[in-house]
Each structure stands twice: as structure tokens, then as C-alpha cells.
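Per your request, structure below.
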């Protein structure tokens, strides 16, 4: 029956007993009549409809309504059960006598009790009733006592037993509550309904301590159980409440609080199931209340130490986890019990806790937990202060080990010898002196515990694992001594500067450590050409690392002349006799052998070159002595690894050294097995995919520089790549910096011309060469016969057709034969160089006359997940594609057909241009280069023309040079070019 808000009404709170949930309150509004009396007209009120009755409610009423909503059975079910169910099914299932869930029952009880307590606290001055059996909310009015009652607990011990009972006082008068139909309607804290009055109690008495006595005078505790009963039940009562005892003593005592710190192994957490834990699962919406939740237990020791703070009061220990002002200790003397009520000095205890916090030991809930090494470092550091503060420090009986907590010191010395550094030192743990080398496996494996001769466990200081990790990782152990290679000079300096080691070294090494500039070296006399200033600096640097017997990595950007700097070094060693008659080995991708050869012929013709490649190479290492430089490929080194090991080279030099980035590959293993006086690597991209690329290459030139592969992976690769650890990145950079020379284009821009043109010669694969020769033979016979019979004019179409077919095969045979499934030498080289340019952070325009050729390149880039822009004659929105390339930093490749890209494009974001298939007219190619080099372009543009060796491309290049003026000034079409060819030209092209 609805209540009218236009007529007087009253908010009331009605107490009822639920079959499963216990005592609850419900909120109602009840209509008043004209005389102000409550009528039978009423309705429930909840948070949803409470605003309708706002005129008759105050702030407390709104709070009470919200709380009563939360304990209604539907709200409880929703809180604890995620599945759809009826109240009957829910309560029958959870409260079943045999199969019910006791844990969930307890959680629900706690939930309801908490809210009942909050409701009862707010009922003072409100209209409160007991609900009638017919659901009438105003059946009997009750009130809340204006002040709390007091409970006194009594114990009477005699020869046979102890009687226990409580008495209650209210306003100075004893309250007769036994056998009076009193009920406990809330247990925590206790609220008792006696007659028409609701009572609560001082000191938050638990209702379970009163409930047994509602219909009982006392409880009897037999003698045989009094020990445990006194400890578990009486002592907490004495601690928190007024207790009157006969037959045993209760003594209140005061002492000076003396701090005590007990350390022990920290237990690892294991999984247990508690009612509260299971209820927590249920309340998160689990379909059932099963499942374990991890809570603290004490099982096996871990790598942490517990510090438990306690205080001695007289002869008694009080743990700071005890949160009451009084702590009770039970003592039994023969047949008598004494309850010592220790009055704690909580202010003094808090002062001690604060002083520990000031010293970086945060005690919370009576305990601090530190990593084992940190814990013992803390103890060593604060030992004297703890004594001054009156502390007793002891090891807990639960610890399975006897720990050493005395003084720890270390002394390390490093002395230079002819070939390396000797490392020596001692460690003192109290009276014991231990050789420094004994700590090596502990530091490397992060094992903190070191067993002393007397059986005690010493904890290695945590800082040593940082300070001496690299020393142990990079050193080598021989006959119980440690040695360190000289390329670890920077590490030795760091140890000396950090006062972690005393160092003795030669003046030469001291000079190296202090150097600021690299000495200028004379150029070889027979060198043809001139090095740019940055190239001369690179040449000087190569001499510098060689002088100190270090390996080096020349990592200039592509196009800056790593080849010419290296050739100048080798020529100087030949002229000065430094090579001592030994050849140097240059290892590179097969596609680069011809380029190195042409560069050597151009700049260092005095160097005697042996091209050690091909199926029919002469496998005789003795012949190497007749040459200065041996050019070979990674593939050949793999095949001839055992043979090449037998020769000691002057230099072993790896070009495009990222080829050995995988340390486990056969290529890496093969080159590491080569013997030489010096090692050098050349690469524009020292790191292509992973930081491990760097380890493999640096370990080739300076073995041991970055430790073992496992050490590097653990200490550098994972922290840098997964953890983005800037400190580790800086440390790695510091280790490799002396051995890498890297110049970017931008750094040397002022020394470069506007444009630099390069030819990149690409060898054909075997299958490609076979295809090319068959096609050439076919067209050569037909064309020469036609020339003989019909003359030049009638043969022009056939000649153009044949040359076009040969050009296609030189690029990729698939352009001419769709069923061709093998590789192309040019595609390999183009993709390799695109990857290099992209890795170095540059942008490249890739031009081809053939859309079909661009399609093949596109497929290769897609396969390698390299993003690119694309433009040919069919591209609809040219300007959008150009803008995307110009403005997108991550987009570094633009594939363009020469015809589509010849007019109206401004692509100044690129500083590399690749011409995939150069042809007769350089003007067309120049136009492509100008796409990148326009007004406003501040950077040098590097152009690479890809020429397939021993094909019509190479022969046209030679013919082009012969007729350069004619080609440049007059000829603009293929047809015009064909007309200009003589019979001798044609025979040369098809030869």
C-alpha cells in the first residue's frame, strides 16, 4: 500500500530475523493519521525511491537506507553469486547441512555483520521497531540505549575447575540479562536486545563472549584443559577487558623497552585455501567459491631476509605485530598461574621504528624484508649504530643456516704483462682470507652465499656483483690465475678510477688511455687518387687500432668509401713491409668481389690480387704468398674452412660483416677459425635485427670483449631489448666505442660533392647465366645471319628485340620466362643494399624502366616486410604517394618506373638513388637522380647503377663511354640508338 507524500509520514527501521542471514533491518515509510499516529499504511523504501520522501528524511536516513539495501537477500546473492538463481536455490545450496560451503557462509556472515554494525551506530534517535510475524513493520517499538554498557569478566578457580561468567553494568547499575529472552543481534561488535532496549558495549566486546550466558549462569573449565584455555582465551581477555579473578594472579607491570632485531631466512609463499580467500574469489564473480588464493605461509627459505622487530619488557618479548597497549604473558609456577599485564611504551617503540626507517629499514607490521645481500650489507653498515641504540641483534632459530655478519673487505690488483693483464686479489671475511678468484663462479652466477672454512655462510656484498661482474666475465682463468686481454683497457681504467683495483701498466698503455687524437699517417706512395679528409681520418684510425693489436670495425654509411680506406691501409702495409710477406684475406658477399677488384685496380693497382672464387679455384694456400690480397666470398670460406685455417694471414677483413651476425651459423664459425695477425670488419649496419648481431661481430675482431654469448645475452641483450635499460645501453656503448669508427653522411656532408655516382657490379647466378647464354646464342645466330643477308636496316627490329630480352634476363630471367623459379644475382644485390640503406636510416628511390622488374622487387620487399611507396604509369594519385614518402619517417623505399617518375616529381627526402637497369641514354637516368637532388636538398645524393657482369649491360656501358657525346647530345630513343650501331658494335654486344 503506497504512502502519500502529501500527507504526514514517518521513516522507520524494522528488525527481523532471516532464516539464514540472521537479524536484519529493513527501511519503511509509514503513513501518519490526522492525530499523528502511525497507521497500517506503509511501503518499503530503498535508494531508488528514497528521493520521493526526501522532505521527511535527513542525511543519516539516506545512509541507513543505503545500508539496509545492501543486506537484503537479493543484494547479498548478487554480491556473492554470479550465476542466475533464486533465493531458495541459493540458500539451500550454500547452507546445506552436509554439502554447504562453510567458507562462503562465513564471508556472507562477516559482510552482513559489518553493515548491521554500521546501521546500529546510526539508529540513535530514530524510530525503531520489531517486525511482526505478519510482516507488520511497526509491531513493537524499541529504542537504542543512549550510552554503552560495560562488561566485567569473572573467573573463580578452585581445586577442581574454573568458573567463568560475565556481569554487565549500565549507568552504574548491574544489568540483569540472563534468562530474560535477551538476544545478540550483532556479534562484532556486540549489540544486545534486552526487553525493548538495544545495548552496545565499551571496548568493542565480541557478542560471542556474551551469547553463551544469555541462558546460562556460568561456564565450567575443567582442570585438564585449563592450560590451553588460559592461554588461548583468558590471556586475550585480560589484555583487552576488565577481568576479576580468584585463584590466579593478574599483575600490571612497567619496564624499559629494549629493542631486539631478529633476522632469518624469509619464507616463500605457498598456496593455501582459507574461507576468506575463497569468499574473495566468489565476490569477484566466480561461478563457484572454489580455488586457492596465495596467502603468506612459512615454508622453504628464499633469497630474502626477514628482520623481525620486538621489544624486551623485563624477561618478556613483545612483538610489534601486537597492536594493543597492553600485552599479556602467561606464566605458570607449579600450580599457580600469573598473568603479566605488560604496559608497553608505544611512544618509545615508534621512535625506534622511525630511527630504523631513517636508516633505510622500513618496519611494517613488525617486519622488514630485504634481499639477502642488501640485508647483510645493511647489518655491516649499521652495526655500531645498533649497539648505540641499545639493540640486541640475533639470528632466528627458524633459519636453517648460520650466517656470518662480521666485517668484509676486498683488495684487487691488476698488472700488465707482455700480452695481457694479470688479475689478483684477496677477500677477507673476518679472520678468513680467501683468494679473489674463488668468487668468480659466485659473481658470474649471482650466487650470494659463500661457505667459510668454519661452516658459516658469508653473504657476498651486492655491490660486488656490479663492480666486479665484467672483470670476471671478460677475464680468462688459467691455472688458478685470472688474465684479461688488453682490449679491456677501458674496464681496467674504470676499476682504477672507482678505487676498486690498484693498477700497474706500461707508459705506452697509459698514453693510449689518455690519448685525445689519432696520429696522422703518411699515405702509400703508389696510391692513386686522393682521400677526402674524413677518409684520411679513417685511414689513420685503422693504423691506430692495428698499432695496439686491437681489432676494428669501420662502420661508415654506405657510399662513404670504406673500400678505399681499407685498400689504402693494405697498400701501406705492403710498401712498408709490415705485412711480412703474408697475404691479407678479404671476405665478402659474392656480389661484391668484382666491385672490390675494380676499386683496387683503380686506386691501388700495385696490390697483387688473387680472386679466390668459383668452382675451379686453385685450392693451394701456398700460392697466397705470391699475392698481397686474396678476395673471396663467405660461401667459399665455409666450404674451404679447414684449408684456409692452415694459412696465417696478415689481415682477415670481413666486408658486410653482418653476414656473421648469427654466432651459431657455419659462416660465423668458419671465419672465427681463420688465423691472422689483425682483424677488421666493414659494415654500414653493425646491428640489423638484434643486439646479438653486435656480439658476434665484435667477438670476431676482439675475442672476449663482450664476454661469452650467454653472459652477453643475460647482461646486455635482454635488459636492452626487453627492458629498454638505458644504463646497460650506455655501458655497452662504452665497451665497444674504442673499436668502432662510424661516420654518418650528415657528419661529413661538408666534405662531399653534391652527387656521387657508383657502379655496382652483380654476378649472375648459375641458372641465370645458363638462361642468358642460351638466349644470347639464339639471337646472335639469327641477327648475324640477318645482317649478312639483309643489312643493318632490316635487322634493327630483331636486334632491338634480342637486346631487350637479354636486358630482361640480366635483371631477372622471370621477366622473360614466367616459369623461371631460380634467383637473380642483381635482385640479391639490390635487396641487400636496400636493407643496408634502410638500416642506416636513409631513404632511397629505386628506378626501373620495366614495371615487371619493379613487381619482382616489390615481391622481395613484401617477403622481407620492408615498407615502400610505389609509382608507375597506372598510379592514380601520384601526389598522395609522393607526399606519403616525403612525410612518413618510417617509409624509406620508393619504387618508381622511369617513365612515370621522369616529370614533375620532387622527392628531396631521399639521399640514395638506385638505377636498376641502366641503358643507353644517361640523360634519362640523370633526370631520375634529379628527382632527389633538387633545389633545397642539403644532402649529398649517392647514385648506384646496378650492372650485371658479363652481360649486354656491361658491354653497353663500355660502348656508351666510347660514344658518350653522341649518346648524350643526339640520341633519345632506343630505335635511334639501334640505328647508330655499326656491325662491329653489334658483334661486340652479342659477343
Amino acid at each position: 500500500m503506497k504512502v502519500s507524500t502529501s500527507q504526514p509520514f514517518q521513516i522507520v527501521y524494522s528488525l527481523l530475523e532471516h532464516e539464514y542471514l540472521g537479524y536484519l533491518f529493513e527501511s519503511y515509510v509509514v503513513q501518519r493519521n490526522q492525530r499523528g499516529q502511525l497507521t497500517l499504511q506503509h511501503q518499503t523504501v530503498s535508494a531508488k525511491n528514497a528521493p520521493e520522501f526526501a522532505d521527511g528524511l535527513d542525511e543519516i536516513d539516506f545512509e541507513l537506507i543505503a545500508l539496509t539495501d545492501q543486506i537484503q537477500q537479493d543484494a547479498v546473492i548478487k554480491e556473492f553469486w554470479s550465476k542466475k538463481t533464486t533465493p531458495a536455490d541459493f540458500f539451500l545450496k550454500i547452507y546445506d547441512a552436509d554439502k554447504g560451503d562453510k567458507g562462503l557462509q562465513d564471508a556472507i556472515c562477516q559482510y552482513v555483520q559489518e553493515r548491521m554494525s554500521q546501521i546500529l551506530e546510526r539508529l540513535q534517535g530514530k524510530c525503531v521497531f520489531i517486525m511482526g510475524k505478519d510482516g507488520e513493520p511497526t509491531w513493537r517499538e524499541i529504542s537504542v540505549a543512549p550510552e554503552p554498557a560495560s562488561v566485567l569478566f569473572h573467573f573463580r578457580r578452585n581445586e577442581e575447575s574454573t568458573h567463568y561468567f560475565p556481569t554487565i553494568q549500565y549507568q552504574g547499575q548491574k544489568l540483569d540479562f540472563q534468562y530474560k529472552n535477551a538476544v545478540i543481534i550483532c556479534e562484532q561488535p556486540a549489540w544486545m536486545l534486552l526487553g525493548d532496549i538495544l545495548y552496545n558495549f565499551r571496548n568493542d566486546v565480541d557478542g560471542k563472549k556474551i551469547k553463551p550466558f544469555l541462558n546460562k549462569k556460568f561456564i565450567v573449565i575443567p582442570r585438564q584443559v585449563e592450560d590451553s584455555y588460559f592461554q588461548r582465551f583468558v590471556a586475550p581477555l585480560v589484555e583487552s577487558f576488565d577481568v576479576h579473578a580468584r585463584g590466579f594472579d593478574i599483575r600490571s607491570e612497567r619496564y624499559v623497552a629494549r629493542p631486539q632485531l631478529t633476522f632469518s631466512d624469509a619464507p616463500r609463499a605457498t598456496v593455501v585455501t582459507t574461507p576468506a580467500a575463497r569468499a574473495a574469489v566468489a565476490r569477484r564473480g566466480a561461478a563457484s567459491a572454489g580455488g586457492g588464493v596465495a596467502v603468506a605461509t612459512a615454508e622453504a627459505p628464499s633469497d630474502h631476509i626477514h628482520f623481525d622487530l620486538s621489544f624486551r619488557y623485563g624477561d618478556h618479548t613483545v612483538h610489534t605485530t601486537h597492536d594493543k597497549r597492553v600485552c599479556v604473558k602467561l606464566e605458570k609456577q607449579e600450580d599457580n598461574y600469573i598473568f603479566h599485564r605488560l604496559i608497553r611504551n608505544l611512544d618509545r617503540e615508534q621512535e625506534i621504528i622511525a630511527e630504523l626507517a631513517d636508516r633505510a629499514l622500513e618496519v611494517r607490521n613488525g617486519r622488514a624484508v630485504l634481499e639477502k645481500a642488501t640485508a647483510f650489507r645493511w647489518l655491516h653498515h649499521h652495526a655500531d649504530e645498533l649497539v648505540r641504540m641499545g639493540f640486541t641483534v640475533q639470528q632466528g632459530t627458524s633459519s636453517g643456516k648460520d650466517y656470518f655478519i662480521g666485517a668484509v673487505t676486498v683488495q684487487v690488483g691488476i698488472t700488465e704483462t707482455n700480452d695481457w693483464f694479470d688479475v689478483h686479489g684477496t677477500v677477507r671475511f673476518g679472520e678468513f682470507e680467501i683468494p679473489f678468484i674463488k668468487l668468480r663462479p659466485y659473481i658470474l652466477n649471482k650466487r650470494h652465499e659463500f661457505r667459510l672454512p668454519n661452516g658459516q655462510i658469508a653473504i657476498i656484498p651486492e655491490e660486488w656483483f656490479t663492480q666486479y661482474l665484467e672483470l670476471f666475465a671478460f677475464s680468462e682463468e688459467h691455472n688458478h690465475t685470472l688474465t684479461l686481454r688488453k682490449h679491456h683497457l677501458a674496464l681496467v681504467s674504470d676499476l682504477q678510477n672507482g678505487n676498486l683495483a690498484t693498477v700497474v701498466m706500461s707508459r705506452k698503455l697509459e698514453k693510449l688511455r689518455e690519448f685525445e687524437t689519432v696520429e696522422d699517417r703518411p699515405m702509400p706512395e703508389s696510391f692513386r687518387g686522393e682521400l677526402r679528409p674524413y677518409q684520411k681520418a679513417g685511414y689513420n684510425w685503422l693504423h691506430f687500432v692495428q698499432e695496439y693489436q686491437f681489432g676494428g670495425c669501420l662502420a661508415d654509411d654506405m657510399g662513404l668509401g670504406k673500400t678505399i680506406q681499407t685498400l689504402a691501409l693494405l697498400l701501406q702495409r705492403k710498401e712498408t713491409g709490415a705485412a711480412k710477406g703474408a697475404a691479407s684475406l678479404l671476405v665478402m658477399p659474392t656480389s661484391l668481389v668484382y666491385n672490390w677488384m675494380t676499386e683496387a685496380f683503380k686506386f691501388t693497382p700495385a696490390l697483387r690480387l688473387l680472386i679466390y672464387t668459383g668452382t675451379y679455384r686453385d685450392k693451394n694456400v701456398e700460392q697466397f704468398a705470391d699475392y698481397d690480397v686474396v678476395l673471396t666470398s663467405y660461401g667459399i670460406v665455409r666450404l674451404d674452412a679447414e684449408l684456409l685455417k692452415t694459412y696465417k694471414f696478415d689481415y682477415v677483413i670481413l666486408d658486410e660483416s653482418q653476414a656473421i651476425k648469427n654466432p651459431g651459423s657455419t659462416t660465423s664459425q668458419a671465419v672465427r677459425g681463420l688465423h691472422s695477425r689483425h682483424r677488421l670488419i666493414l659494415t654500414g649496419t653493425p646491428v640489423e635485427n638484434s643486439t646479438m648481431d653486435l656480439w658476434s661481430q665484435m667477438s670476431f675482431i676482439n675475442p672476449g670483449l663482450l664476454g661469452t654469448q650467454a653472459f652477453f645475452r643475460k647482461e646486455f641483450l635482454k635488459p636492452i631489448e626487453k627492458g629498454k635499460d638505458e644504463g646497460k645501453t650506455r655501458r655497452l656503448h662504452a665497451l665497444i666505442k674504442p673499436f668502432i669508427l662510424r661516420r654518418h653522411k650528415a657528419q661529413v656532408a661538408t666534405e662531399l660533392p653534391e652527387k656521387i655516382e657508383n657502379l655496382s657490379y652483380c654476378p649472375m647466378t648459375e641458372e641465370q647465366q645458363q638462361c642468358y647464354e642460351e638466349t644470347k646464342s639464339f639471337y646472335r645466330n639469327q641477327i648475324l645471319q640477318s645482317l649478312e643477308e639483309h643489312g643493318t636496316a632490316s635487322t634493327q627490329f630483331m636486334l632491338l628485340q634480342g637486346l631487350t630480352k637479354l636486358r630482361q634476363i640480366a635483371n631477372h630471367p622471370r621477366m622473360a620466362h614466367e616459369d623461371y623459379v631460380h634467383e637473380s644475382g642483381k635482385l640479391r644485390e639490390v635487396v641487400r643494399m636496400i636493407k643496408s640503406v634502410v638500416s642506416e636510416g636513409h631513404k632511397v628511390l629505386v628506378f626501373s624502366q620495366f614495371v615487371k622488374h619493379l613487381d619482382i622487387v616489390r615481391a622481395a620487399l613484401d617477403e622481407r616486410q620492408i615498407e615502400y611507396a610505389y609509382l608507375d604509369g597506372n598510379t592514380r594519385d601520384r601526389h598522395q604517394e609522393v607526399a606519403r614518402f616525403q612525410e612518413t619517417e618510417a617509409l624509406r623505399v620508393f619504387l618508381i618506373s622511369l617513365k612515370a617518375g621522369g616529370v614533375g616529381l620532387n622527392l628531396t627526402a631521399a639521399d640514395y638513388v638506385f638505377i636498376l637497369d641502366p641503358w643507353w641514354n644517361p640523360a634519362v637516368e640523370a633526370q631520375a637522380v634529379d628527382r632527389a637532388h633538387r633545389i633545397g636538398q642539403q644532402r649529398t645524393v649517392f647514385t648506384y647503377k646496378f650492372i650485371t657482369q658479363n652481360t649486354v649491360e656491361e658491354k653497353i656501358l663500355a660502348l656508351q663511354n666510347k660514344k658518350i657525346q653522341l649518346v648524350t647530345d643526339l640520341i633519345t630513343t632506343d630505335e635511334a640508338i639501334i640505328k647508330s650501331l655499326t656491325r662491329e658494335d653489334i658483334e661486340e654486344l652479342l659477343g
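The radius of gyration is 46 Å.

Regards,
D.
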